[in-house]
Amino acid sequence: MIRLEGVEVRYGDALAVAATDLEFAQGSFTSLLGPTGCGKSTLLNVVAGFVPPSGGRALMDGAPVTGPGSDRGMVFQHYALLPWFTARGNVEFALKRFGLPRAERRAHALRALDDVGLADAAEKYPAQLSGGMRQRVALARALAAEPRVLLMDEPFGALDAITRRRMQQLLAELWRRTGTTVVLVTHDVDEALVLSQRIVVMAAGPGRVIADHRMDDGTASPEDTRPRIVAQLDTEPR
Ligand code: ADP
Ligand code: MG
């Protein structure tokens, strides 16, 4: 459903991502794993439509990606909630650009907040919420438009270990329930192993894919895969 064909990204003269071919199947859960600077965010932003490829193309259901759209939801590490809006207000605000009528926006927002376990906190302001709860609002904001693809860029990186674990469980549950296609950027091997069916390992200089581990076809277990990934991350020059 998502297809990158020879996608290359340059920032000025610098080659951030060398020509990359990747496909993400509908309903799949893939992690992009690699050290800082290997182009994980750049590739995700190409899929999101925030960064245009300098070469090649990104396709969503066969149509070139030309910008952000309601079919793709994005969650960042820094949730960037608007402090003057409640949790519900933040989700509703994000829905505004999709032209839903007000009542429907509200219903969507409340349902999304309920989905992430925040039904009771809908009228609270970001300052009244913990870090984990704020990230739940950010997740609700991305889910409210019922995107077919959920793109997440190190979404749990700023959370403490326990909250992070809870958010991972919530994400796994949402993925199973909704069948949304997930692409998760992380530099945490164990997070990738716990959550995903497939792990694409990247290396820097220039950013590129160096391995594609599939754990969903019964040929490799997470236990078999872990040492291979660790070796790949270790041996690649940074
Ligand atoms: P990652 O998410 O894996 O840490 P990024 O995609 O953020 O990697 O960055 C890949 C490379 O591109 C890095 O060398 C980074 O410095 C560079 N880069 C990222 N964004 C920009 C930008 N907006 N302008 C210039 N260089 C950038
Ligand atoms: Mg990044």
Summarize it.
The chain has helices spanning 40-48, 87-95, 102-115, 131-143, 161-178, 189-195, 222-235; strands spanning 2-11, 14-24, 29-33, 55-60, 63-64, 72-75, 149-153, 181-186, 198-203, 208-214. The chain has 238 residues and is of the alpha/beta class. α2 (87-95) runs parallel beside α4.
Record keyword descriptors for this entry.
238 residues, 7 helices, Rossmann fold, binds adenosine-5'-diphosphate, alpha/beta, 6-stranded mixed sheet, binds magnesium ion, globular
Helix-strand string: EEEHEEEHHHEHEHEEH
The CATH architecture name of the domain at 1-71 and 148-154 and 181-238 reads: 3-Layer(aba) Sandwich
**What is the makeup of the main sheet?**
6 strands, mixed
Strands side by side in the biggest sheet: 6-7-8-3-9-10
Strand content: 25-35%
Mean pLDDT: 93
- Shape summary: globular
Low-confidence stretches: none
Using the coordinates shown, work out and report the CATH topology of the domain at 1-71 and 148-154 and 181-238: Rossmann fold
Structure description:
There is one protein chain. With 238 residues, the protein is an alpha/beta fold. The protein has a six-stranded mixed β-sheet, with helices on both faces. It has a four-stranded antiparallel β-sheet with strand order 2-1-4-5, covered by helices on one side. The chain has a domain at 1-71 and 148-154 and 181-238: 3-Layer(aba) Sandwich (Rossmann fold), CATH 3.40.50.300. Helix 2 (87-95) packs across helix 3 (102-115) and helix 6 packs antiparallel against helix 7. It has helices at 40-48, 87-95, 102-115, 131-143, 161-178, 189-195, 222-235, and strands at residues 2-11, 14-24, 29-33, 55-60, 63-64, 72-75, 149-153, 181-186, 198-203, 208-214. The mean pLDDT is 93. Bound molecules: adenosine-5'-diphosphate and magnesium ion. Residues 2-229 form the ABC transporter domain. Keywords: ATP-binding, Nucleotide-binding, Transport. Residues 213-227 have a biased composition (Basic and acidic residues). InterPro entries: AAA+_ATPase, ABC_transporter-like_ATP-bd, ABC_transporter-like_CS, ABC_transporter_ATP-bind, P-loop_NTPase. Residues 213-238 are annotated as: Disordered.
